[in-house]
Amino acid sequence: MGGKSNEENPLEISLASSGTIIEGLFLGAETRHLTRNQNGFFTGHALFVGPSLFIRLSDTFTAKVAWSAQIPDETTRRLDLVNYPRHEVLAQIVANF
Fold first, then answer.
1. Residue 22 domain flag
2. pLDDT tens digits, residue range 52-79?
3. How many angstroms separate the CA atoms of 51 and 18, rounded?
């Protein structure tokens, strides 16, 4: 039992809001803070902000497209491009049954 464990414990906190543009079309904004801890040591964090668009395709299908960019956070005043990308794009289709 002399092996080392390599445990990563990421944490993500997000705040989002959206509003109706027209029926079935929603525009939103999101802020996300991501933190990485490996073996109990802080290894990085990033702050992302960006818009999102939700479209109700039918009563059972919804599509979401979101783009976010990493911005300097208040504590370090820099980007963490070693552990996180500069931009993220998300595309989702959700089916309700």
1. yes
2. 999 999 999 999 999 999 999 777 789 9
3. 9
